């Protein structure tokens, strides 16, 4: 379903099956001779029908259309291969997130997941991820990426879109900002009504939550009238929303620290995650689908690693399992 949200900007609502997110806000910016699409949807029939029918509804020539990926997740990158087969346009991405997309396509992305399961204190098995979106709905063939870096400018219609680096939700998440129009395409960096998942991305990214909080501060310093997020509602009071998201994570940090204390000052990720409050509806943590269980554990670990980075707790890997210690 196409909705005009700004002059020359349209929101194409792309359904996301089998996920609590329900849909993606794929934005289409139109010009007389060219178009730019921001994010795509899952590599599924339902998502592809919505994605390509939106392009057709606007009468856009897909051959003269480019695709910008804010980050690697399959609900944003899943249709990039299919798009590139139909279009002669570019597929923009940050270089590091593009490398993860390539790993998804090559079926090697699950190595990160399996490694994480062991650290969490769970049984390490590739079968655990058979229903994970990164495995089920990722692009189906190699992508010829056009890499962008911070402060690159993409011009379309009368917009000058500045590439902004906002790591946190993923290691190399990027957004687009027009300082003259005061509009900001946030991807999953800032969302309304739901908090972006902040995950553990391996020890090469030791404090993703810290990076995310810094990225929020960077965005808060910009002059923005409208944020176009990738899910849920358009955001106008962005400073309020940023403050709410930061408060949520500070509450999470207090919750995690309290649970670690209650657990005798020593616990694994799975022990902490299973005791945390989650909005996902299920009878118990054990009843979570595997993908949601991994997201929960990975977010719990991101908070634990941030507490470690600021000196509140310590950790030790014992037989491949990471134990966290609270010494008040």
UniProtKB/TrEMBL annotation:
Pfam families: Lactamase_B. SUPFAM superfamilies: Metallo-hydrolase/oxidoreductase. It comes from the Bacteria. Residues 23-231 form the Metallo-beta-lactamase domain. SMART domains: Lactamase_B. Gene3D superfamilies: Ribonuclease Z/Hydroxyacylglutathione hydrolase-like, Winged helix-like DNA-binding domain superfamily/Winged helix DNA-binding domain. This is Glyoxylase, beta-lactamase superfamily II. It comes from Acetoanaerobium noterae.
